[in-house]
Amino acid sequence: MIQVEVWSDIVCPWCYIGKRRLETALSRFDGEVTVEWRSFQLDPSTPVGDPRPVGESLAARKGLSAAQVKGMFAHVTQIAAEEGLAYDFDRARTANTFDAHRLLHFAKPHGLQAALQERLMQAYFTEGADIGDQTVLAGLAAAVGLDEVAAKQALADGSHEADVRADIATARAYGISGVPFFVFNQRVGVSGAQPAEVFDQALRQSSLTILGSPAADDACTDDSCTI
Q: Among 84, 116, 214, 218, which residue's Cβ finds the most Cβ atoms within 10 Å?
């Protein structure tokens, strides 16, 4: 069994691309793999309840011109399209993702974490949903089969705050400063939305580690290293 832990943020465009590329590698890997989504916030200081257009927010935060932001969005949109993803940054709204990460932890014991991760990213990047709004989040939870009332209650009472903070602390301990970041069997790390072939290699390397091959220990390439 190979365990893959993925640190990502819902509003990270490269995280969604990396997710698709990992899925491509998994679809052609002959072995048992579990994937667990870990919390990370690119900007925890993002105001709650201020769903401005993401382009406006990014320009203000980074000191970029409207033309620079448009160019950045066009670039990542084209790459996303190559993975079958339809980004619409004209609709995307700024959101603090802490509550969304709490909801992902709520979904985990129900076996619906992966489904919710996909639904949240689709809602944000394609549909322009305000994923910082608890009512919207509860509705998205219901869309993947979770109890909407229970999800709304979990969001209201602060459930899983400690789980989110623990994931972020673990990322810090690993030295993760950006996402997506993929950890295979707590040994092999892949940083960024690498091509699917890099994930192929990480899966093979992790498989050899399970079998006890010395060739799999202490290995490092340009794209991944043992942790």
A: 116
Q: How far apart are CA 143 and CA 19, in angstroms?
A: 20
The pairing of strands 33-39 and 2-8 is: parallel
String of DSSP letters for 55-102 = HHHHHHHHT--HHHHHHHHHHHHHHHHHTT----TTT-B----HHHHH
Q: How is residue 57 written in tokens?
A: 């927010």
CA dist., res. 187 & res. 22, Å (int) = 17
Residues 6+ apart with CB under 8 A from 173: none
pTM, two decimal places: 0.91
Q: pLDDT of 16-62, one tens digit each?
A: 999 999 999 999 999 999 999 999 999 999 999 889 999 999 999 89
* CA angle (38 as vertex; 35, 41 as ends), nearest 5: 145
Q: Give the largest Cα separation in the chain, rounded.
A: 53
CA–CA separation, 213 and 224 (whole Å): 18
The residues with which 8 forms a beta bridge, in sequence order, are: 39
Proportion of the chain above pLDDT 70, given as a percent: 92
Q: Which parts of the chain are beta strand (E)?
A: 2-8, 33-39, 181-184, 188-191, 224-226
Is 173 in a helix, a strand, or coil? helix
CA distances from 127 to 36, 120, 173 (A): 25, 10, 35
Interatomic CA distance for residues 105 and 112, integer angstroms: 10
Structure tokens, 144: 């993947």
The type of residue at 227 is: I
Average pLDDT over residues 161-178: 96
